[in-house]
Amino acid sequence: MHKKFLYAGVAVLLFSFLTFTGCKQDDMPKAKTHEEMVALGKYIVTTGGCEDCHSPKIYTEKGPEFDTTRSLSGFPANETLPDIDLNMVTPGKWVMTEKNFSAWVGPWGISYASNITPDKATGIGTLTEEMFIKSFREGKYMGVGRPLLPPMPWQVIGKKTDEDLKAIYAYLMSIKPIHNMVPQPTPPDKIMEMQTKK
Ligand code: HEC
After folding, report:
1. Structural domain boundaries, residue 153
2. 98 in any annotated domain
3. Does ligand 1 come within 6 angstroms of the Cβ of 182?
4. Per the count of CB atoms within 10 A, which of 3, 9, 31, 142 is most buried?
């Protein structure tokens, strides 16, 4: 009689073990569909502060808001920067930005937030996924070029998983392309020249 219970007990254990391991396989993470990657990328970009620097702003009584007609198109090429007092931006003094938070002045000169819409001529439309990921991992313009300048937080974004960076790429490639040719950075010794040329 006792033996019978023992056999039954073993059978129950074996059954639950098999069911459990079977379930485990069903729970394995499945590769995300393209739509799911775009949705994840949208979540990361909209909660990750990218628009703080990469989207032009409109000013309301409440302060700056994102100009949703030009989302993520970078420093507006048609805007002229106000004059800069160079004594204020020598090392150890101020780092400054303009009204869109998209042009930044510091000891590195002036950097301009890139157009990260998929426009082929002026945005990241021709960038491959691999180059895009490399730009964050290695802090290089277009993934292969010059070092990226402050305040682009590539050191932080570059710590994301491959899946997150691929999702950001999928999302950015899905948004409206905007034609806006962001200027190349101005080296520190060229700021004066730029101001007198205006
Ligand atoms: C504090 C401001 C700031 C924030 C926040 C920011 N960026 Fe940037 N980003 C910049 C600036 C400025 C540049 C241009 C740097 C340069 O020219 O060297 C840049 C450059 C880039 C580039 C390089 C484009 C190229 O052609 O190589 C990509 C891609 C990019 N940013 C994506 C993002 C994403 C995605 C986020 C959010 C997760 C983000 N940035 C958040 C300021 C910022």
Report:
1. 31-196
2. yes
3. no
4. 142
First and final CA of the chain: distance in angstroms?
101
Residues contacting residue 164 through CB under 8 Å, at least 6 positions apart: 40, 44
Residue 7 domain-assigned (yes or no): no
pLDDT digit string (tens) for the chain, length 198 residues = 567 766 766 666 666 555 555 555 567 778 999 999 999 999 999 999 999 999 999 999 999 999 999 999 999 999 999 999 988 888 899 999 999 999 999 999 999 999 999 999 999 999 999 999 999 999 999 999 999 999 999 999 999 999 999 999 999 999 999 999 999 999 999 998 888 776
> What is the rounded CA–CA span in Å between residue 12 and residue 141?
61
Atom of ligand 1 nearest to the CA of 185: 17
Q: Is 103 in the pocket of ligand 1 (CB under 6 A)?
A: no
Distance 152 CA to ligand 1 centre (A): 5
Q: In whole angstroms, give the CA distance from residue 84 to residue 9.
A: 82
Pocket flag, ligand 1, residue 183 (CB < 6 Å): no
Q: Nearest residue CA, atom 2 of ligand 1?
A: 53
Q: Ligand 1 mean position to 1 CA, how many Å?
A: 74
Contacts for 187 with CB less than 8 Å, ≥ 6 apart: 109
How many domains are contained in the chain?
1
Asked whether residue 115 is assigned to any structural domain, the reply reads: yes
Report the atom number in ligand 1 closest to the C-alpha of 149.
18
